[in-house]
Give the backbone structure.
Amino acid sequence: MPNSLLKPRNNSPLNVVWREAFLTGESCDQLVAYCETLPVLDAVLTGPQAPEARQSTIAWVPQQKDSAPLFDLVRTQAEELNAEHFGFDLVGFGERMQYARYGTGKGHYDWHIDAGPGATSLRKLSIIIQLSDEADYEGGDVEFQAPGPITRLPRKRGTLAAFSPFLLHRVTQVTRGERRSLVAWISGPPFR
């Protein structure tokens, strides 16, 4: 049974759930090593807050032979969590996964949602996998502005969290070290 910020409700878009130990420390190390071989970009946003709203670097993880086991593992877990807690109509990955690094002093991502125009309008679930050990950085908390007080995701390495892409959330400023995570979005038919 996964943990939750709120008492999980069947088929609720307000659920934020997670499974600790989704990945082992060794698996996190291997994933980071693989992602570090990918082309690194500055995270770029458009809109009234950009570019100050997000400061981090990213790399896009393509769906290809060497990453297929990762995509299969995340998809299977997302399908299980969706069946237990969300009830969305899912199709699969509509986009590449995003490897993100938030560094000391400026790494952050202000309040945002993961849905928008174009392909992002088809996102049904957002997935975050915590790759850094919580002792390796300070700040960098993933927070949600759900009904009630602001709530935080656990920081335990290897944890996978799932939530609706239209929940307001942020990554607070990293004040020491570096936070690394993998983000994925599971798509489905347009909402009606």
About this structure: The helical segments are 25-35, 68-86. The radius of gyration is 16 Å. The first helix runs from residue 25 to 35.
